[in-house]
Design a protein that fits this description.
Layout: E1 2-9, H1 18-37, E2 41-51, E3 54-68, E4 81-83, E5 86-92, H2 106-115, H3 120-128, E6 134-140, E7 145-150, E8 159-161, E9 169-173, E10 186-187, E11 192-197, H4 198-208, H5 211-218, E12 219-223, H6 259-280, E13 294-297, H7 302-314, E14 321-328, H8 331-339, H9 347-359, H10 371-386, E15 392-399, H11 401-415, H12 421-435, E16 437-440, E17 449-452, E18 457-459, H13 464-468, H14 472-496, H15 502-510, E19 515-517, H16 523-531, H17 534-537, H18 550-559, H19 562-565, H20 572-575
Parallel strand pairs: 13-14, 13-18, 14-15, 18-19
Antiparallel strand pairs: 1-3, 1-9, 2-3, 4-5, 5-6, 6-7, 7-11, 8-9, 8-10, 11-12, 16-17
GO molecular function: asparagine synthase (glutamine-hydrolyzing) activity
GO biological process, one term: asparagine biosynthetic process
Protein name: Asparagine synthase
């Protein structure tokens, strides 16, 4: 994980205008924000091109900034990477498509390949053959172009502010530095590679002397997959459109795999297992010998449990795996729990009692026995039975209400440009969970001891619901439109992945100097699952806990994770009680300014 930042503007340090002061202040804040993502090393490269008529006044000043979180090799590598005038700011991991040795830096290897390219299509081809999450800014000296993009699924954050009259600068950054009335960051779209052509910029600026117009006229979008190229990782795969036959054998019990699904279950397991292995191998040790290098966002649900179990297969047995389980002190929830079941009361009385509880005094003692804590502890015991010899550090991350409120402004700044109530609920849960600071117990009845995880890699089970039909809306689609509606909804899920939560989640987790990795969102896993007939993945005719994500449930049973295989989906914000702390606001409501 790294932080990348790029700025292009027409100011120099010798100028003294309000716009210049604003640009330099924002640039300083953005460098600081990106340094948190890569605490091991930071550096900048600055390039200035002066106006021929006034050598003290630059036509443009470009700064390339990079910070490094060491997750390969024995020593941190300084970035931005530079080779023969080419400059690369790289935030990513290469899991396929380019040979990178255990002690080699993937950014260095990538720049070597990019610098050898002579045409833009060659650069496009290099990225179209890479599997892994990334966001980058790249200056190609021979072409005199600045390119920037995210991977096709948007697994890494990259934000862009396009020049305006109020803030005439092009700013590209892994993370924002908070709100500002003139700073208009948006997520970089993943459907193309963005290109700023410097010669075109210079010609436009020479005519107009207008920085905003020069940027607009010189920026274009390059297709990720030109028609004459076949690139395996240029875009996520499309969902198999085949309609299931009128009759096919239904799954009777998760413990018995039908013959027609035995092959797909085995193939799915092999591909998911490889994706997990690629994401836990060769991680350099930064803590003490025998300390954890890998952690998992762990609710005890089917997704996080499968990821934890597969990680266990590839992490040396003599080192622990940390399981982050977060629970919030939520005074509103605790009051409602104290009141007991009021669902049988008439609706008006329910509302009156809820209001009375919310306006009353808080409970005397905070409780962190949230739903995810209960299922997490249950699943911990199943993992211990199946994985003898493994130390599982079940990290109880207990977040007092006051600490949540104190962190709120910080979390809101990190998640920008995301700004809804649901964004905040999820971001709070991720922020405290990924920090990995809590308590662990040597045995269920033992006293807890404080613990802070040294693991820099955080595994997540995100993606399985989108790929395998795990949401209630997939069952709803079947109800109104049958299998064609389900197929359409699953395609929409894949199409929406780059624009939903991944950028926000990356900004939150990376603020702790950690990197999140998603085995289910390997493009190889996505391609395999998308290519399966829809009735291999799910069966909405079966009850919840069986028909949703059916293929994964069968796989989980095959692994011996019997309890996990039957667990129903529960959203993180409700399982951890990070949602609705201050009232019944709808999730899509915008946060107050």
């Amino acid at each position: 994980m790294c932080g990348v930042f790029f700025s292009l503007h027409g100011y120099d340090i010798e100028e003294n205008t309000s716009s210049q002061e604003l640009v330099y202040s924002l640039c300083a804040n953005l460098r600081k924000a990106n340094a948190e993502r890569g605490p091991d090393r930071q550096s900048s490269i600055v390039r200035r091109i002066s106006d021929p008529q006034d050598l003290k006044r630059p036509v443009r000043t470009a700064e390339f900034y990079g910070s490094e979180l060491r997750l390969r090799g024995e020593a941190a590598i300084q970035q931005p990477h530079e080779l023969n005038g080419n400059i690369l700011c790289w935030n990513g991991e290469i899991f396929g498509g380019l040979e990178v040795g255990p002690q080699e830096n993937d950014g260095v290897k990538l720049l070597e390949a990019l610098a050898a390219a002579k045409e833009a299509d060659e650069i496009i081809g290099i990225f179209g053959r890479l599997e892994g999450p990334y966001g980058f800014v790249y200056y190609h000296a021979a072409l005199n172009q600045i390119l920037f993009a995210r991977d096709p699924l948007g697994r890494r954050s990259l934000l862009v502010h396009r020049p305006t009259a109020e803030l005439p600068a092009l700013l590209i950054s892994s993370v924002s530095s908070g709100t500002h009335p003139n700073l208009n960051f948006e997520e970089v779209s993943t459907d193309c590679i963005h290109c700023l052509d410097i010669p075109t910029f210079d010609r436009s600026y020479a005519v107009t002397s207008n920085f905003v117009e020069a940027c607009e006229s010189s920026t274009s979008q390059l297709p990720r997959c030109p028609q004459d190229l076949k690139l395996p990782y240029a875009a996520p795969a499309n969902v198999n459109p085949a309609i299931p036959p009128a009759e096919f054998p239904q799954v009777q019990t998760l413990g018995q795999i039908p013959i027609y699904l035995q092959g797909p279950v085995d193939e799915f397991l092999a591909i998911l297992d490889k994706a997990t292995w690629l994401r836990v191998r060769d991680i350099p040790r930064t803590g003490a010998e025998g300390s954890a290098r890998v952690s998992v966002l762990f609710s005890g649900g089917i997704d996080s449990t499968v990821v934890a179990y597969l990680a266990h297969k590839h992490v040396p047995l003599d080192e622990p795996i940390d399981l982050f389980n977060v629970g919030f002190e939520n005074p509103r929830k605790m009051k409602l729990q104290q009141a007991g079941n009021i669902g049988a009361l008439p609706r008006r009385q329910q509302k009156q009692k809820k209001q009375a509880l919310e306006n009353g005094p808080p409970p005397a003692e905070p409780s962190y026995r949230v739903p995810d804590r209960v299922t997490g502890l249950q699943e911990l015991e199943e993992l211990r039975r199946l994985c003898p010899g493994r130390t599982w550090n079940f990290v109880e991350v207990n977040v007092p209400y006051e600490e949540t409120q104190n962190a709120r402004e910080r979390v809101e700044d990190l998640m920008l440009p995301s700004r809804t109530v649901m964004d905040l609920s999820l971001a709070l849960a991720l922020y405290f969970a990924a920090r990995g600071k809590g308590q662990i117990r040597s045995a269920p009845a033992a006293d807890p001891v404080p613990y802070t995880s040294p693991a820099r890699v955080v595994l997540s089970g995100l993606g399985s619901d989108e790929l395998l039909g795990g949401y209630g809306r997939h069952r709803t689609a079947y109800g109104y439109g049958g299998w064609p509606a389900v197929i359409e909804e699953l395609q929409l899920e894949i199409d929406r992945i780059p624009t939903r939560n991944l950028g926000r989640d990356d900004r939150i987790i990376s603020s702790h100097g950690k990197e999140t990795r998603h085995p289910f969102l390997s493009l190889d896993v996505v391609s395999f699952v998308a290519g399966l007939p829809v009735h291999y993945k799910m069966d909405p005719r079966l009850e919840t806990g069986t028909g949703d994500k059916m293929l994964l449930r069968l796989l989980t049973q095959k692994l011996g994770l019997v309890e996990a295989s039957c667990r129903k989906k529960r959203a993180m914000q409700f399982g951890s009680h990070s949602a609705r702390m201050d009232g019944e606001k709808k999730g899509d409501a915008a946060l107050a300014e």
